[in-house]
Amino acid sequence: MRISNYLKPKSLDEAYTELISHGNNAVIGGGAYLKLGNRKINKAIDPYDLNLNYIKEQDNFVEIGAMTTLREIEESKALKNNFGGLISKVSSIIMGVQLRNVATIGGTIGGRYGFSDLLTALIALDTKVFLYNRGEISLEDFIALPQIPRDIITKVIINKKNCKTSFKDLRNTATDFSIVNVAVCNTNNNFKIVIGARPGVAKATCKSMEIIKDLHVPEERINNLCDSVVDEFSFGSDLRGSKEYRKEVAKVLVKRAVMEVL
């Protein structure tokens, strides 16, 4: 990564104006994952002074500022006490503490990284992303956009609901990226299943919310239903594993996660 110029804007308006003024300008969150690429950046825009680092719990939702670090999310009482602790737990297993002290939720979402554990967990919940220019968009719709928008993520809102959640993953070592990961959310016996690190970006299945509503079925039937859910997803190969291996692992992880939230 090469950066020619650096700017700390004093307002979101200034940050957005600078962002769209040049095609190679970029907003940096913590910069932890941005360094993985070979990108040439004309001007790096640092939102550090824009008061986007916070976690606020309201009656019906939890609001997280875009510059909140994964470590702060990990330690947040509001996130430990909601959503079955899913977001806090998942944040706690991402790489090492040093990286979690740097990486931000805004940077994680904005990068739409295929290896992200946190994206998988957030998609399983009712998560909204707020962009400075575009406004509110569901996380799933944001992920599905054909291109990452030229905009600034300001905050994330997760709507509260009475649910059971589970996250499962397989990785070579504790501080490595996931080979494949799975998040399941059970809301009143409606299941939402998300698979990430395929190695494509995390994706939810709609079919899963229809076929696993009847819980009064034998475990063997649930296993078959879980297998059919995994068949909806496409998998790829990389240095961490082949597409065939990922698919077989995903079947096991989905079954374990579903059984955990029954």
UniProtKB/TrEMBL annotation:
It comes from the Bacteria. Pfam families: CO_deh_flav_C, FAD_binding_5. Residues 1-163 form the FAD-binding PCMH-type domain. SMART domains: CO_deh_flav_C. The keyword RNA-binding does not apply. The keyword Oxidoreductase applies. Keywords: FAD, Flavoprotein, Oxidoreductase. PANTHER family: XANTHINE DEHYDROGENASE SUBUNIT C-RELATED. This is CO/xanthine dehydrogenase FAD-binding subunit.
